[in-house]
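SEVERITY: medium
COMPONENT: batch folding queue
REPORTER: lab tech (J.R.)

DESCRIPTION
The queue accepted two submissions in a row. Attaching both inputs and their returned structure tokens so the on-call engineer can compare them side by side.

ATTACHMENT 1
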Amino acid sequence: MLGIDRRVVQNFDWVLLFLILLLTTFGIANLMSATAAGSDGAVSDIARRQLLALGISGIALLVVIFIDYRHYERFATPLYVAMLLLLVGTLLFAPVTRGSRAWLLEGRLQPSEFAKIVMVIALARYFSRNPPSDITRLRDLVRPGLIVAAPVALIMLQPDMGVALLTLLVATTFLPFLRIPWRTWAVVAALGAAALAGVWSYGLKDYQQQRILDFVDPSRDPLSSGYQAMQSRIAVGSGGLFGKGWFDGTQTQLRFLPTQHTDFVFSVLAEEWGFVGSVIVLGLYATLLVWGLWIARNSKDPFGALLAVGLVGTLFWPALVNVAMVLGLAPVIGVPLPLFSYGGTALLAASISLGLLLNVSMRRYVF
């Protein structure tokens, strides 16, 4: 089970590894600047903790690579059940932190970050046995819909609307492979709009409604709930073409953004490295995601192909939502930027996704 075939080593995906190392290096450098204020020139405690998390994540990536990805298909159901039990345990035993029960181990572990990956494994297993191209009716989506609905519902109960939305978006990564007519999707969209109206009225707390209203018009409360969105735009705009330089961003070093090391870490990058630096980093993300789709296309079995597609979704959607949030194109919902934002659990989850992608790529010739 755990042995490494010689062909696996010969076909190791050095391109993907290089992209991971580049993004991780840029992310750590950016985080060091984001947390430099008040550290008197030394590496901040936040950066040290992230480096420790990076070491743990690297080990996890290697472990994931060693286990043939086809074994994940065989154990998809036990993994899924264990994930649901962990989410239930979080609801029951996690302390209330910032209004939600989402963290275990004194705020060090957020189980919902791993729910997206386990859900992708379960969906890949289902669709590998029930080809998406054969699905032409909505009722054919009942079982995969339940696979998605269970973790999303448990995460909403925490409540963590940001991660719940991300989990749902990751699931939509599989939709382009279905053959359901567009008229049917129009009906679904209408029902979804009605559901959103119900969620707005009965599911969202006041502060969550305020965030959405502030997204539409941040100037309505510039000193409170709209403050971060406005300061983020100022930081991005002040970077200009080439930026102010590493550790020289005024918005960053004067800490106008309270969460610049987590949700708004991209604003630090944009201020200090400007438009050119931002485009380079976004280009690296785009290359990584396109390479992930290439891995899916070249996989020799349906499960590997679908798994790779879903894993790309676990990286694509958080990156898209975070950058849109920083630029004022999406509401502030607390979504970290993969490999850049501070957070051990998010970094570990991203590393597991990347490890699984490497796993599928390395074994594309081993059949």
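ATTACHMENT 2
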Amino acid sequence: MQTAFEDCDAVEQRAQDELIHLFRDAVKVGGAALEMRVRRFASLVRTSDAGLAQAITPLVTGDGQSVRRAHASGSSPVDSDTKLPLVRFDAPETIRQQPLLTPSVQTAVDQVVRERRAAEKLQAAGLMPARSVLMSGPPGVGKTMTAGWLAYELGLPLLTLDLASVMSSYLGKTGANVRAVLTHAQAQPCVLLLDEFDSIAKRRDDDSDVGELKRLVTVILQTIDDWSPASLLVAATNHGELLDPAVWRRFDVTLSFVMPEAAQRSALLQSRGITPLLADALAAATDGQTFSSLARAIESARKQNILEGIAVDESLAAWALSLHTSSSRRSERDRRNLQILVLHCREKSAREIADELGTSHTTVLRALRQFTGEDNAGT
């Protein structure tokens, strides 16, 4: 019986070896379309057979592969005057951090990935996978990160429209640049991110804009309608109210991002190495802060730790305290509790904290139990 199992394992291993050799030989001559298919296969088996996915991925991540050449070579669109590239290229294998999303947004993102991975099955049934996604919400809540995550999950390069290069003092040039980017992104499979989308897709009833920009909106609408299913178009805006109403109807999927809740803020802090109890305490004290502001605070705290020897926990607690101190809406109790947390991070005992703040030992212990969950937090 043992021999039979061993034989099965050996046959399976040989089959996988042959599959890898088949992919290697095919990619050499198959071009970008086959390369994308191999990427999707590796993405599909990543969870069920990480070893096989790891063996296949290098076949399509080398500097000489066709997709990288097609998007990052001289064929990439450039401004005719400045010669600056109109898109930024990120390779498919670029490591991405999974964004922290609300359940409804996460469900929608997962659905986009499933549809894109099963594109051929859907098309065979006369259905079209999601081709376009519009994300709206305040800055710093994970829109750009979500676009990168979609590209990573789908094994596609991420192309980001460079608005600084696209926008021109010659209005006709701006339209030509945008059209060049849209055409280029459909030539080879990719995820195209149009960040700050409101700057090129404003309402056409805005009297402050001239005719050329209004015509550009019409071009964009037509392009979305005819978008190639080989690529995924992702647009992001901080000001959804500025978009032309017709834009919203054109996108297959619309995602509304909101300010992160306490649970999401705590999850971000924990993902960056902050202990769960402290992360929960800081999350409760940072209402109204975005993911990006939290990430900057963590980075600043780590720099202080290296340059000044201040503990990361203490720096973060002091930062949270500064938010409360600068806001009249914060209660005096909240400020005092954060002061207690800062001093606790400095390894002061409860009695030392009480003496320094002029409060009772019992009050300090109660706050520390809230922050640390310990019954005898440094008595």
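NOTES FROM REPORTER
The chain has three domains: 1-60, 63-256, 262-372.
No errors were logged for either attachment.
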